[in-house]
Amino acid sequence: MIDSRKRQFLLLSVVSALILSLGWPRFGFPGLLFFGFVPLFFIEETILNNREKFGRFHLFRWVWLTFFFWNGLTTWWIWNSTIFGAVMAIILNSLFQALVFVAYHFVRRNLRPMAGGPLLLIAFWIGFEYLHLDWDLSWPWLNLGNGFAAYPRWIQWYEYTGCFGGSLWVLIANVFAFLTIKAAIKRQKRLVLQNGSAFTVLLVVPLVVSGILWCQYTEQGKPIDVVVVQPNNDPWSEQYGLPTQNVVDRLLALSETKTDSAVKYVVFPESAIYDDIWLDNIGSPESIRKIAGFVKAHPQVAVIAGVSSYQYYGKVKQTETARRFSHGDEFYDAYNTAICIDTSFKFEYTHKSKLVPGPERLPFPSVTFALQKIAFDLGGTVGSLGTMPNRVVLGHSTSTPVCVPICYESIYGDFLTGFIRNGAQLIFVITNDGWWGHTAGHRQHFTFSQLRAIETRRDVARAANTGISGFINQRGEIIAESTYWQEAVMRHTLYANTFLTFYVKYGDYIGRLAAFTSLLFLLLAISMVLRHKKNYPLK
């Protein structure tokens, strides 16, 4: 009997992983996500109803197997940039997800019938996704709401809920799909009708609402012509091997082909300039002077470019991430930076603050400080990068302030709302997606910008060194996109919007509520266990 159960659980675990993986963007069908957790619900309920046969942590092995395969099948491409990073991302993220499911199961075991059945998983899962956004091991790539990124017609209501609305949609649909199938297996016709009707309504109503919003929405704001440049430098052999002057000359030559008196912004990708740019003397490097010359020739233009920058501190270590010069006792910080160069020559800048765990920031630096020297940084530096505490918008001198998320930052919805509340009217994503090769990685990353467009109702211009550059409108619709691994320069008219959506104003309120609810239930379950042990101590 046990062996047959194992085979059944193994099959259900693998099926769940396949469903979730086949539903993932860019080429998956997100409708599958509405059924991805159903096999796990059957495993969990079987173990719950046969507690005398299964240990408290028996569920862990099966749910971890599901999430390990899901993470591996959808994010295996990390391997192309760092083998260690891929192994750690896949193992750790699947471990965290499995522990969430186990915590949900623990509460159900100890609070029945108070726990509310499988509906409780909604709070636990969304609470985990929310807390996973803001700690040293943050990796929200597989947050369920991201799964609809390539289908913007389905999720126009993200302007009210953000991606957590999508996670809520997926999870509650899974619950009623499970209840419907379970009732059908037991031949409970009334419950099949009730739960099946609820499942249908839960699917159809959001789609109808989104369709109405899609048809009614029109671009808002003043028109702004923007040029994006994709130089197509191979990050492994060219990006940091070519003289930076050659790279800048190529960027400017491409820009000239599309720039005229109507263009207001030219956007270069992440790490387009890798001179040693010290923030106390930004205008000195030759690369900056060349771009300044381009701006003088086109005085209506502001250039946004990714640079590697540094801040000198002298003999005082002023930040946690400050590093010591190899020869001497003085300190400095290294940053992944976006800089704005216009005719004011004020050189506004913002630093990347959502850093990739491992390559750009070692988790828990007070503990892992000794490993700083061997950290491999994709941006060309060693050790943890510095960050910026405030959400700084660029382009004030142009009268059209912009938000410039750098690479990984573009997957954090609530993080970007801080820039929008500070006045950003457009979003310019600058990135370098060539590390992963021609895989799903750069395609998934591109589609996540569609989510940011809907949440904030901001047009998006995206400049990639290698990957996909392009434009996305306020409905999350792709207007134009480049071809992978090809040099490109593109121009389009975007609309600088000043309206603040409900989501921009209130952020991840769904995530905050879910985190509070799940923690409350977890504490109640723990207190119940402790009280039971006190009343019935082991002899």
Describe this structure in words.
The protein has 539 residues and is an alpha/beta fold. The protein has 2 domains: 2-217 and 511-535; 222-307 and 338-505, 4-Layer Sandwich (Nitrilase/N-carbamoyl-D-aminoacid amidohydrolase). The chain is built from 15 helices and 13 strands. It has helices at residues 2-22, 38-49, 58-75, 83-111, 120-131, 158-161, 163-185, 189-216, 244-256, 286-297, 365-368, 413-421, 440-456, 502-506, 509-535; strands spanning 222-230, 263-267, 273-278, 302-314, 323-324, 331-341, 348-351, 402-403, 426-431, 460-464, 470-472, 478-481, 488-496. Strands 1, 2, 3, 4, 5, 6, 7 and 13 form an 8-stranded mixed β-sheet that branches. The protein has a 5-stranded mixed β-sheet with strand order 8-9-10-11-12. A hairpin with a 6-residue loop joins strand 5 (323-324) and strand 6 (331-341). The model is unreliable at 374-381 (pLDDT under 50).
